[in-house]
Structures are given as structure tokens and as C-alpha cells.
Amino acid sequence: MYCRGVIATHAQVLARFGHALSDPTRTRLLLALREAPGYPAELADLLGVSRQSLSNHLACLRGCGLVVSVPEGRRVRYEIADARLSHALGDLLGVVLAVGDDRCETADGVTR
Q1: Per-residue pLDDT of the chain (112 residues; tens, 9 = 90+)
Q2: pTM for the whole thing?
Q3: Closest to 34 in 3D by CA, of 92, 110, 73
Q4: What's the CA gap between 57 and 62, in Å, rounded?
Q5: Burial class (CB in 10 A: 0-12, 13-18, 19+), 108
Q6: Residue 69 class from Cβ within 10 Å (0-12 exposed, 13-18 middle, 19+ buried)?
Q7: Which of 3, 9, 45, 77 has the fewest Cβ atoms surrounding its Cβ within 10 A?
């Protein structure tokens, strides 16, 4: 049985993960990093966003504990913080694809 503190902690972890996935750019960034580690300039080009925007998203993902930065001389490489996260993203993709995107409702109750 879980005590209330553990449930609250688990809820906080899932909320951080949900926050990270709530933005399409951060989601695409996580999926790109799931495939391979990357460098900010290359990731910005891959995602078609400005370097400043990418930097903000990387800071958010670092703050959530989902990605880590690895210094490499004058460059910094980013990667998924834990291999289990890559696996979890794959599992989530499988669930979303099985349900279908035609069942996704927005906060205002509109199905898109």
C-alpha cells in the first residue's frame, strides 16, 4: 500500500512529465533525443525552431529532469536523462497510436 507522501511524489513526477509533453516542440524534441543525442544547433535545425526557442525548451526539459547536458569541449550534447524514459516514450506512442488521434479532446471539450 502507498502512503500519501509516495502518491503525491508520484503525482508530481507524472505532472512534470505531462508538462514536458504538453508543448508540441518539447514533445518533438524528446522524440528526437529518443532517437539519438544531439547538439542544440542541429536540434534547432531539425525541429525548425530558433536556437533561442530550443534553448528555452531544453532548459524546461532539464528542469523537469528529463534530459541532461553533457559537456564536450566547447560544445554541449543533450540526451535523455534515463534510458527508461526512452522506453516509456515508446510505450506511450504505442498507446496513442492504438487509441487513435481522432479521440483527442481539448480542454474546451472539442474533439479534434
Answers
A1: 455 666 668 888 888 888 898 999 999 999 999 999 999 999 999 999 999 999 999 999 998 889 999 999 999 999 999 999 999 898 888 887 766 656 566 555 555 4
A2: 0.78
A3: 92
A4: 9
A5: exposed
A6: middle
A7: 3
